[in-house]
Amino acid sequence: MKKNGFALVEILVCMAVFSIVIFAVTRLFWVSQEAASLGKEKLKASGLALEYQEGLKNLQRSNWNLLVNGRYLLQDTAGDLALIPTEGAETLGRFSRYLTIGTALRDSSGNIVSSGGVPDQSTKKITVNISWEGVHPGQMTYVSYLTRYFENFAWIQTMVNDFNAGEMDMVKIVSPVMENGEVQLKGGCFTGDPESLIYDDQLRNGWRVNCNGLSSLQWLICKIIQFFSNSTIVTNSTEYTYSGSSNSIKITLRPPGSGTAWSWVKIYNYDKVCTIGFRNLHFYAYNPSSSEIRIWVTAVYGQWDRREIILAPNTWTELSLDYEQIGEDYEKTLDSIYFSKQMSVSSPNVIFYIDQAELTGGVGGYFSSGTLASSVLDTGKSSAFNRISFTGSLPANTMIGFQAAVSNSPTGPWLFYGPGGTSSETDLYSVAEGQGLWLGANQGRYFRYKALLKSTDGENTPILKDVTINYSP
Amino acid sequence: MVELIIYCGLLSIILSILYLFYAQIANQRILQVTETDIYTNGYKILLDFQKTVRKTSSVGIPSFRGMGNILSLDNGNITYHLDEQGRIIKTEGLETNILSDQKIVIEDLVFSNLGPSVSNPTIKISFTVKGVHLVGGWEREESFQTAVTKR
Questions:
Q1: Chain A residues with beta carbon closer than 8 angstroms to that of B67
Q2: Which fold, A153-183+367-472?
Q3: Which of A268, B26, B36, B67 is found 20 to 30 A from A371 (Cα to Cα)?
Q4: What is the ipTM, given to two decimal places?
């Protein structure tokens, strides 16, 4: 009896084990089926997601501004893809899908981040959601980014007129080749071909009458000269022709109140033109009287160099005073030029005009810094400004940097920012190959840049040849 | 005697379970093979389509904003169409390739040339792949679609 009982129990145990094995094998088979099915569903989902992603590229190329943040279906409407705002989803058999467009965030290095960054107006985050039902339901999310790099525009500033349209402070525009312009710090002189010593550039650098330390009468005369010089010292002659007495500096040397004295006017080298190694003072002088005038021209460079000039009556005289040995050999720094004459109390006023004064020779004496604020770029509609790049030359101890400003009004306000989002003079775009503009202020209709040129020792000037702004209207 | 009956009963149960188990496995296996044929063919066609359209220089047929069952690219050098046996035929120059095999049939092949971008239209493909073997007395079919925007 005992043995028979054990036989039945053994069969029952055997069946139990068999059931467990069958269950395990079935489960394994089921999992295998599930995995295979899921793989197929994912493949199909990826094809549906790709359809949305590719369709958005079509819209991106057509009009970036169609990509507005929101939740959409992408549908064919009479042959054109269109974003249909929705709260639901598009159903395709057991699959359903929709997409969302959002703003991409970037950190200070330009990397896309999920939070904590700054919105990039030229990049959109595209999320396609696909879900499916059936025996093995599931869902997939596909994230991609679209960047507005198609059909961008470039605003290039390279011609003399481009730069001249801006606002300059202690910089000047020169034109070494045709009408291509270059921005340099003021001061210094050209070397080489004397013909390249342009009147305008020298005169723009400015000669300013200094009235400090003069007696009251001389101070008054000086102020009168200042009055003229402030408005007429720059002839703006672009044709190497002087414009006559109306555009010249009128100088009046008056006799002293008593006795005999030197009546003089000092023209101070305010803009440090050709300060080191100056070689020549060239100018025109006009004597409006009917008799000859003799006056002294004195260069002050730590020492004195006084020379007498004679102006014939009723005529313009071209004068060229050579200081080559002083300037080149001794590398003196020109401080000022005096026009003077020894006069007595009974002497008549001595009146003459000077025009197109220029100093040639020197190699140094640049201002330590200067700025060029560009003219206003009107893109016609709200645009994203992407990058700023430039070409130029940077001798030792010089630098060029930029800040950028956007506005929705042609008159500003113009708040210039560097890549760090500040207006500090040390926060500058200075990578010639180009830098992405600070995303905190890169959206608007109007744009300006400000170029900052620096020379730490004044011996050389940086040269800005062209500036390119990449933007997306 | 009683034990013998019990043994026979238990054996019958076990055999029934085994039969059902193997029948289910066999059915699933047929289904799996058929589905694999469908998906393999479907994705082979989609991948070829994506790769080809991405590098195409022009789309002739269907015309812009049009649709049809023939796709002609690169001034007619590359074409896709469906033959009478339900196979997708791709011609590239003088070379002809059959993109689908004999285990499936393609139906409802439609190409669309979608705007709004004229220079970079989106070419959409949609079709249905049908297995030639019946599974559990039913035809198995799956529809596929995707799109590629011309570069």
A1: 79
A2: Jelly Rolls (2.60.120)
A3: A268
A4: 0.84
